[in-house]
Amino acid sequence: MMAADFSDTGFSEATTASIATAREHSIGALLHRSARRTPDKTAIINGDVTLTFAELDTAVNRCANALTERGLRRGDRLALVSHNCWQFAVLNFAAARIGAILVPVNFGLGADEIAFILSHSGARGVVVEDALGQTVIDAIDRAAAVIDIQGWIALSGMPAPDGFQDATEWMSSGDATAVGVVIGDDEPVRMMYTSGTESRPKGVLLSSKSLISQYVSCIIDGGMTADDVEIHSLPLYHCAQLDCFLSTDIYLGATSIILPAPDPAAILATIESARATKLFCPPTVWISLLRHPDFDTRDLSSLRKGYYGASPMPVEVLRELSRRLPDVQLWNFYGQTEMSPLATILQPHEQIDRAGSAGRASLNVETRVVDDDGNPVPTGEVGEIVHRSPHATLGYYRDEEKTAAAFAGGWFHSGDLGIIDKDGYLSVVDRKKDMIKTGGENVASREVEEAIYLLDGVAEVAVFGVPHPKWIEAVTAVVVPKEGAQLTEETVDAHLESILAGYKRPKYVVFADALPKNPSGKILKRDLRSEHNDIAGR
Fold it and tell me: What is the pTM of this model?
């Protein structure tokens, strides 16, 4: 059934344009409104740079005008390759103000991988941090794209090479007049590339409607306020730090402290020195904070709100956090890039009683679990997690087939497997690709990981499947012991004997000094699978 057509309002084109201007609610408008409310309040602290909301708004206007002067237009793609810095925040809002589509790029990628993103996105411009400059220059040479706008962020003091301009100058001088471009709710303003479990990553298109709907869900269900002082240390190229936290702080008028990386010593020192109240970390980083020698010597009493996501928090780590940071409320944010990224939230009062749960659908989301035909499964049964929400992506850029599959039946299909209990709480069983099929039985890697974490002396663990001539896949665990702990394969197996069925217990246990992780703190199980792929034949 077609929606009713109310386009013939009888209004003139000029009146319609005036209404659109008055009603605009785009990413570019959020900062400006915060600057009008609290112009002199500190918006961003990044090393020696401190910007009030008024100063940040002016920098964004200058940058937006500079990009326009250099030929960037509505709908053009602007790639950004940089570690965390205040310039990243400016470019995010400046591109949105002129209707350009920002393409944040993982700074850990190689030249060929970046070249693919530049080519696939059709990027017109690129801005790069100096330390990453040569990789991006090589990528431009290999990309099938005309990159005629090239900006340079000199964080290390390296001068811009030929063809590049100092992007910080775009923000610190020039025309500060407000940009007069009116952006529609569902015009794309961002293209986020997935980390890619397939041969190539996909370009996830997000609009102001997607993002702002998600900000509202984060703010309401995540207990966020304008009084927050938040540390942002995870990569801003990832929408978790950028859109669940930095952009919501800008929207609210809260203060953001930007760190270049999630270094445990720097995070702990900054909580103390800046009296930070709020912190987001994936479980791997929370674990690194708990294990750092400074944890018990720094004054962390200002911290009141803690958030985690990207992967489940081990139950034993949750209990340790509640003991060692008793005044900190914790939230679990579950989602993915295609949901801008939030889908469900586990609230502070639910952390221990429902440990391991991803919570319930957030404010602007409806979530269910379905079978392979899209039908809801009975309560307590495993199925694929699907969502309906304005958070959802507009689709995968230039990929009709994957977009159609992702939105089959009018729901966004997450690719995660989960269970919803009688009270509506979601438990994520595993990614479809992480479910281990051994001897005809399905084993959820997370269940095995949780059991191993109960063993004293375990700092971190990752469980995955490797090829096996008899079992097809063999459950395999890589364990990182705590400092001074004496663990053996026999002690791990003896510990699990009374907890897990035999087919769930690892056939192989490997000990390591660390687990491979991406810059967002996610454990790279694909790297572990590759490294241990032939373990059955050794």
Answer: 0.84
